[in-house]
Amino acid sequence: MTTAPADVDTPVDRASLEARRAVARELQTAFRDSGVHAMPKIGMTTAAPAVSLTIPLSGWETLPFLVDGQLPVANPAAPLQHLLGQHNVHAKVMLVEFGPETAAEVAVATCGDARRLVALVVERRSEAHNAALRLRAAFTKIGFTEDHIYVIDGAVQIGDINAPDAVTLLEILTDGNSSAALNELGLCDRWDGEGWREVEKLAQLVGRVVSKVCGQDLESVPNPACHTCASSRPHRISLGTASPQHVLLLASAITAADDPGACGDVVPPDM
Fold this sequence. Notes:
This protein is α+β, with helices and mostly antiparallel strands. Helix content is 41%, strand content 17%.
């Protein structure tokens, strides 16, 4: 008696693989921009889900925007599974071990389901994360080399801007009228470990201007490089924490100052 061969799980073709890779990147970006660390894994065979996401659940802070505030609960898989079904996202949600912690594993069936999940994540992104994205885009537009923008408890933390970028921000927001004050500080010659006093003065200048522009007093704190670390990192300034609305005002002011023809949807307050 001859036994029929088992079904072979065949690899996906190149076009399908590229489509899965593209949608995995979209998912990772959507979750990241919402403050969620999601690690995608691409299905390499026809029987595998298009993309599987592993989302650590440490602290229960990662999924509230997805489950209507139902976390923390004993088993977040069930409400998340229900929500995805409501939005026509075919996926299987399970809890898995993740080192000493627990993670949600979301196996998304097809690329179409993955795109619907991307849309759901973007739709439910918090006001603070939307504001953080707008500010990051404004910083990028004026050539910032790096930023450290975080959302903490519904507010936006704007931290550790490189001192040269802080100078750029100051000049753009003041339409070049800060040049005299900057020249007086001699900042262009003091990016070494000896320039900490100048960085403190720069933090005061930037803090005053940014606070006026966004309509909220921000605590502008210098973080100068010491003698031993000045060669590996520049001086930095943390602008502090602002509400989403005030962050939008700052982003719009930067965009408008950099491109006077741009039309923003948020108007800086008169002060």
